[in-house]
Specification:
The chain is an alpha/beta fold. The chain is built from nine helices and seven strands, in the order ααααβββααβαβαβαβ. A five-stranded mixed beta sheet has the order 3-2-1-4-5, with helices on both faces. A two-stranded parallel ribbon has the order 6-7.
Length: 277
């Protein structure tokens, strides 16, 4: 039971990790893998071709065939025991979450044996949609928590012990007791009521597992340019109806084109008193 091989769908976040093309991308992958080195037999030997590429603080990555074999081998080791433990419903779960500008990531873990080493049970990451990329930091972090719990709801819903959510965004500690929520947050808060869990803050520097999954470089291959949904002329900042029969308003309309406010004001000129279109 302790060495059951997991379905590759459970670890697709790692198995689909693309080949690094820059020094920073390789550091991100090794940072994630290094956290679990105590569970991988001969980790240093397996990862040696990769770590050697970082010696001397190079500015460019010189990928080799040997490094590629090590990269593939290391990913394969994440899919087999004892790296991934089969979830044990009798033990409390820990969900570590994180979000970046391009994606979200999470790790489902449990403590096994003595002195209670933390073993990952499943990994999750995905790219943010165009709409989600426009969320502020707090909402992106909240999204990562909601998406992770939904992904593993078959393990987390109805558990006999509280599970713990770990995030590097302190404000999420108060989400359950928040009084003022926007419609989207209110829907998510209602979803959270189906689960029994606590939220714990942990500094981002110590949240490396979920952080690395949320920052996979293939999640950010497309530019994160804001997308305009409606042209600004559809939603002017302010409306004001003028009656051109008023001399004062005639002078104001004449002066508008030279005013710095002109691009921000939509003026409806009417003699009949009809409302703006």
């Amino acid at each position: 039971h302790q060495r059951v091989k997991m379905d590759t769908l459970m670890v697709q976040a790692v198995t689909k990790w693309p080949q690094p093309s820059t020094v920073k991308e390789l550091q991100s992958f090794l940072g994630f893998a290094n956290f679990h080195r105590c569970f991988i037999r001969n980790y240093s030997t397996v990862a040696s071709p990769l770590t050697s590429l970082l010696k001397g603080k190079p500015t460019k990555l010189r990928w080799t065939e040997e490094a590629n074999r090590a990269f593939v081998s290391l990913k394969e080791k994440f899919t087999s025991a004892p790296i991934l433990k089969h979830p044990d419903p009798s033990l409390p779960f820990i969900v570590e979450v994180d979000a970046s500008n391009c994606g979200i990531g999470a790790v489902l873990s449990q403590r096994h044996g003595q002195p209670g080493k933390l073993h990952p049970c499943a990994l999750f990451s995905r790219k943010l949609t165009s709409a989600e990329q426009n969320y502020d930091v707090g909402n992106k972090e909240l999204l990562s928590m909601k998406a992770a719990i939904k992904e593993w709801r078959h393990w987390l819903e109805g558990v006999t012990q509280l599970f713990q959510v770990i995030t590097d965004h302190k404000n999420l500690e108060y989400i359950k007791g928040a009084k003022r929520l926007n419609p989207r947050q209110a829907r998510w808060a209602l979803f959270f009521t189906r689960f029994q869990f606590t939220v714990t803050n942990r500094p981002g520097s110590k949240n490396s597992k979920a952080d690395a999954l949320s920052r996979r470089h293939d999640l950010s291959t497309e530019p994160l340019n804001p997308k305009r949904i409606l042209p600004p002329t559809i939603l002017p900042i302010s409306w004001r109806r003028f009656n051109v029969n008023n001399n004062r308003n005639r002078h104001l309309l004449t002066a508008l084109p030279i005013s710095s406010m002109y691009p921000k004001v939509c003026v409806h000129v009417s003699c009949s008193g009809s409302t703006p279109p």
